Amino acid sequence: MTKRFLLLVFSFLMSFTGFSNDDIWGPTGHRATGKIAENHLTNRAKRKIDKLLEGESLAFVSTYADEIKSDRNYREFYSWHYVNMPLDGKYETSEKNPKGDLITGINRCVKVLKDKNSTVKDKRFHLKMLVHLMGDLHQPMHIGQKEDKGGNTIQVQWHGRGSNLHRVWDESILSKWNMSYVELADNAKRLSKQQVKVIQKGNVVDWMYDTHKLTKEVYASAKVGENLRYRYSYVYFPIVREQLQKGGLRLAKLLNDIFC
Within a domain: residue 4? Predict the structure, then answer.
């Protein structure tokens, strides 16, 4: 009886905090990005990556960077998941996190993977990190304002339940459509070779600015306390899908260059 009572209390409290086991751009979004990237790798890159990851897929390792967050031994990498900058600011002139950020983290991963003197262990770790960070680079609230922690303190409702703007974009929009990462990847928009090249053009900072344009739109998309429902999901789910595809295509571009 005691265990049942505690379980009921826990469930009751969670209904007010907005916690949900179904809240998943967590693993689902990151795995979709990894799967899309796999579909655009050269054969040479596929062989080298398969050997380095010992058969594990990009989709499988895409959640690794989140999984190690609770381990104090990896605390130095926490700030790699985001960039804080004003909506009307420039990355180059914005205040930088001394512990590093999403841009420096991605660049560090690329450097380690290209270094012939890097150990296999270091390359494997930084490849896993890179797959995840490229997903984060295309989630608009990971390039948000410092004062609201990328939308984490902007309280809204999601279908009548307490949430925040960051969580809505990180998890809830995808969760509402209840699609697996394979379904998301398989149903990515069909693009011509020229369209793919246009998306892959540029560098990490260019791609960050491309996402940041959407960041501004997301901040303006909801008011504090607003109940976001089906209309919001209908409008922004196609954009989430587009961001997952861009992340996968650009990840493939980096990996093809690294493992050429």
Answer: no
